[in-house]
Amino acid sequence: MHLEIVTPDAKIYASEVRLVQVPGANGSFEILKNHAPIISTLQKGRVKVIDEDQKEHSFEIEKGVIEVMKNNIIILAEKV
């Protein structure tokens, strides 16, 4: 899966990943390979990313939106 985390100021992260965990408006949820298409709002919290090398990355975001489609994930965050 390809993940991009973008703010109005810059692209914060772009890489191939195995897992993404986000703070959804109704609770935390995870995205894995071949996840169904989804668009959801995000609340303030931690985005956890496991990359292809099994390394964990963490980003604290303000509110935002996530879009998942065909193993492409875009997180638009107000601030990281």
Features:
about 80 residues; mainly beta; ATP Synthase, domain 1; eight-stranded mixed β-sheet; about 0% helix
User: What's the overall average pLDDT, rounded?
Assistant: 96
Low-confidence stretches: none
Instruction: Spell the H/E element sequence.
Output: EEEEEEEE
Number of domains: 1
- Give the distance, in angstroms, between the N- and C-terminal Cα atoms: 21 Å
CATH fold-level topology: ATP Synthase, domain 1
Extended strand count: 8
The CATH class is identified as Mainly Beta
Question: What can you tell me about this protein's structure?
Answer:
There is one protein chain. The chain has 80 residues and is an all-beta fold. It has one domain (2-77): Sandwich (ATP Synthase, domain 1). It contains no helices and eight strands. Strands 1, 2, 3, 4, 5, 6, 7 and 8 form an eight-stranded mixed β-sheet that branches. Strand 1 and strand 2 form a beta hairpin. The mean pLDDT is 96.
Brief rundown of the structure:
The protein is an all-beta fold and 80 residues long. It is 0% helix and 68% strand. The model has no long low-confidence stretch (mean pLDDT 96).
Secondary-structure map with pairings?
Blueprint: E1 2-6, E2 11-24, E3 27-31, E4 38-42, E5 45-51, E6 56-61, E7 64-69, E8 72-77
Parallel strand pairs: 1-8
Antiparallel strand pairs: 1-2, 2-3, 2-5, 4-7, 5-6, 7-8
